Amino acid sequence: MSVVTAQIAPTGQQNTEALVNAVPAPPTLLTVSGLGWLTVAALVIGLPDEQMVDRTGLLATLLACAGAAQLLLWAGSHVAPVLAHAGKWARWFVALAVMITAWELATAKFNVLPLPFFASPQAFIAVYTDDFPRLFDCLWHSLLLLSEGYFLGAAVGFVSGVALGWSTSVGYWAHPILRLVGPLPATAWIPIAFFIFPSSAAASVFLIALATWFPTTVLTWSGVASVQTAYYDVARTLGANQRCLVLRVAIPAALPSVFVGLFMGLGSSFAVLVVAEMLGVKSGLGWYLQWSQGWGAYANMYADLFVMALMCSTLITLLFKLRDRTLAWQKGLVQW
Amino acid sequence: MVSVSSELERPQAAAAPTREAAGAALRIQDVSHGFVLHNELLPVLDDITMCAEPGEFVALLGPSGCGKSTLLRLVAGLDRPRQGRLLVDGEVIAGADPSRVVVFQDPTLFPWLSVWRNAAFGLQARGVLKQHRSRVDDVLSLVGLTEFARVYPYQLSGGMAQRASLARALVNDPRLLILDEPLGKLDSLTRLAMQGELTRLWRQRGFTVLMVTHDVEEALLLAQRVVVFSDRPARIRADLYVDLEYPRRRDHPEILRLRREALGLLGLEKNW
Ligand SMILES: Nc1ncnc2c1ncn2[C@@H]1O[C@H](COP(=O)(O)OP(=O)(O)O)[C@@H](O)[C@H]1O
Ligand SMILES: [Mg+2]
C-alpha cells in the first residue's frame, strides 16, 4: 500500500499544482469593462438629453457604481483569488456596456427611436423608483396566484398520475378522458371557468392548476408505467407489500419523469398566469402589463416584463435545484 | 476484495448468532410451465421433479433459454406453475417471501438508494429495520462494502454492485438462497473471489442454495449436486453428485471426470 502511495505521490503533487493554476489569474478584461462602464456613466451625465427624462443622474450613478465594482473585483482578485472567478463574466460586462451605450444614445441622447414606444434606460429605471409599491404588490399577487394554482395542479397531477400508472381500473376509466380533455390548452377553459367559479381569483387558480395538472399527470403516469418489472420482482422477494411497492419502488423510479412533467407544468402555468391576470384580476404582473399599455406607459411595460422574466427564471432555477437534490442518484443531470 | 476473505472468518464467526436458521427443504413435484406467445403455449418446463435437502447446495445447469430462470421464478414465488406443486418445508409456495431471496443476474440495485439503503430494503419493507440496523452493517462488511455504504449504485463497479446485491439478499437471513447466474457478468478474477466467498458464506450460515449457472466448472466447484437440464422444454437429464471436500481444486480428477460427463450431457463434449 505504502509503495503504491509513494509511486503516485509525485503525480498527486503535480495535480495539486494544476489545480492551483486552475484558479484564474486576475482577469485583466475586468479593468477594460470597468473603465468602459465608467466611460458610459460619463457619457450619460456629459451629453445633453434630447428627450424629456428624469433620473439621468441616477442612471449615471448606477453605471459608475457598476464600473467601480468591476475594478474593485479586479483589484481584490490579487488578494482573494476567489474573486477572479467573476472574470468569466467580463465579456458579458463589456457587451452590456456597449448595448447600454447604444440604447442610451438612440433614445435619451439623440431621440432616434420614437418616444412613446421605446423607453430610455433612465425611463426604465424611473419605473422602479417611482412605481415600486405597485409593481411589488403585483409581483406578490402573481406569486401568490401562481403558487396556489401550481401546487394544487402539481399535487393532483402527481397523485392522479401514480393512480393511473399503478391501477389498471383507474387507467381504464381515466385514460380516455385524459386523452380527450388533457391536450386542450387550459386557456380554452377561460370562458367556462370565469362563468362557473364564484370569483375570478378562484377561476384563475383553477386554470393555472389545470395547466400544471396535465403534463404532471401524464409524465408521472408514464414514469410509473415504465418502471422495470425487475425492480418489483426484487422488492417482492424482499418482502415488500403493495404499499411498499408503490411508495418505495414505483414513485422513486418514476421521479425523473415526474420532474419533466413538473417543468412542463411550470412553463404552461406561466402562460396561463399572464392570460388569467389580464382577464380577471386587479393586481398581478399580467394585469400591470395591460394596465400600463392602456396608459401608453411603455417604460412600465418593459419594466414589468423584466420583473416577470426574473420571476419565471428564478422559479425554474429553484425547480432545477430541487430536482438536482432529489435526483442526486442519477448521473449526467443537465446543470442549469 | 482480498482483505475481505481474511476479515470474513474471524469477526463473523465470533458474532455468528445461534439464530441461524438451518436451510429450507425444497421439493419440486411434477412441475410443468409455459408461456402463451402469439396465442400458442410455449412449453418451457416439462414435468420437473427434484428436491433440495436442507442446507444443500444445488446447481442447475442447462443450455441458454431452456427454462432455468423460469424455474427459479417459480421457486421464488414470483410466478405460479401451470401444473405441479412446489413445496418449501412441506408447504406449497404461495408467493414471494423474504426467506427465499433471489439474486438475479443483473444486480438490479435500486438506483435511487445508497448501497446501505439498498441492503436495508428487505428489513425496511418488513418494518423491522429499527431493531436490526447493525445487521445491515454486518452484511456490508461481510461483502467488503463498508466504505461504500453511502455511495449510489451508479458509482459502483460491476463486481461491487453484484456484491451489494448479494448483501441485500443475505440481510434477510434467507433459508433458501436463489441465485440466477449471479456471477455471470463478472470478470474472471472477481468471479473467482466471489465463488470462494459464496461457498464460505453457505458453509458458515447453512442455508440451502439453488444456483443457476452456465459455467460447468463453477457448478462443479461450488455445488454438492449438479442438476443438468435438456433443451427447452427443460427436462432433467441428470443429477450429478459432487462428493468432494471444500475448497475444491479445479484440476481434481473427479472434477475433470464430472466435467466431461456434464459437457457430454449438454452435447458439448466434442468442443472440449
Ligand atoms: N415472461 C415470459 N413470457 C414469454 N416467454 C418467456 C417469458 N419468460 C421466459 N420466456 C421464455 O421461456 C424460455 C426460457 O426462458 P428462461 O427461463 O429465461 O431461460 P434460461 O434457462 O436461459 O434462464 C425462453 O424461450 C424465453 O423466451
Ligand atoms: Mg436465465
TrEMBL record, chain A:
The chain crosses the membrane at residues 29-47, 59-77, 89-105, 149-174, 186-214, 245-263, 301-320. It comes from Rhodoblastus sphagnicola. Its main location: membrane. It is found in: Cell membrane. GO terms for cellular component: plasma membrane. It holds the Pfam family BPD_transp_1. Belongs to the binding-protein-dependent transport system permease family. InterPro entries: MetI-like, MetI-like_sf. This is ABC transporter permease. One of its GO terms (biological process) is transmembrane transport. It comes from the Bacteria. Keywords: Cell membrane, Membrane, Transmembrane, Transmembrane helix, Transport. It is a multi-pass membrane protein.
